[in-house]
Here is the input.
Amino acid sequence: MSIADRAVRPLLNRRLAEFGTTVFAEMSALAAATGSINLGQGFPDTDGPEEVREAAVRALRDGRGNQYPPGPGVPELRRAIGDHQLRRYGLALDPDTEVLVTAGATEAIAAAMLALVEPGDEVVALEPYYDSYAACVAMAGGCRVPVTLRPHEGAFRLDLDELRDAVTDRTRLLLINTPHNPTGTVLTREELAAIAGLAVERDLLVLTDEVYEHLVYDDAEHVPLASFPGMRERTVTISSAGKTFSFTGWKVGWITGAPELVTAVRSAKQYLTYVSAGPFQYAVAEALALPDSYFDELRTNLAAKRELLTAGLEAAGFGVFRPAGTYFVTTDIRPLGESDGIAFCRELPERAGVVAIPAAVFYDDREAGAPFVRFAFCKRDEVLREAATRLASLAG
Here is the structure.
């Protein structure tokens, strides 16, 4: 008799029963199996700055980080994070008590949820949301309450009244993501001020995912939520090196916040990975000290890639929501005579040799996300041009 036959209950924890293999793994496997261009999973197809890669090699050779680094992160990186926040946003941090290095932003989200949320607590999150949000809320025993960003005048917009109405006496935490994945929305100062006012009024904690902080375009600006009045003591801010420096495999992320918040998250984080990415932490410390010209050039290059892909998508017949941030573009497949994004994405490799992500997987309300599909433009220009050529077949 097998374990499954003897089991009185399912082997998988019920909190995770609704979550299968991530859509990113499914679609990346489909890309490999069909030889398709992978515009699904959000990773660049070129490495970041050579001097940053060489900094990692130098750390390896010098024996820095090859053994367990300090639990909170190496001091050089914690200082560099503090310097970055002060230089970019005027936020002064104590690197010893207000900075914690994590195994990417994904671990930061998990550790924060496990530390700050108890069973029955409500977590209000902007929908559509990165898939790990829902899983981490579930693992913590919380109840997720989505507030949906809805299409309006060519972009996805937050309804502040809907956000306010979602908060109840059981709400523990607001989970905010700006610049927003997958829609590319960048919340304005006015919207962030309203969120801050609501958090202060209702005495809520806020977890803000700002991993795309340097990827904003046109007139959009990234403003940390922690910089608003009354928010420093209640906000856990998350960011990472992967998206900014194009080394996603290094998995170096961090949280910043008031000492008591960082201490709480560290209490959970120490039982997850404890430490990770030792030599890479030294390299990321050097990366954060790169001159402003690096960040300016990054935005300029990605903005050009955005134009390249959005033009191709529009020519292929998609409805296109031009992103103000991130390196994703969300499209509407209804102009193509389609309505089921999941089915469309599973068929797209055979139809056009391109892989994308169905946005419905980022929604609790699958119907609300059904007609939307996300493409990544963090690829070489020649890859984007070839993808546009392949997708043009859909226009016929």
About this structure: The chain is about 40% helix and 15% strand.
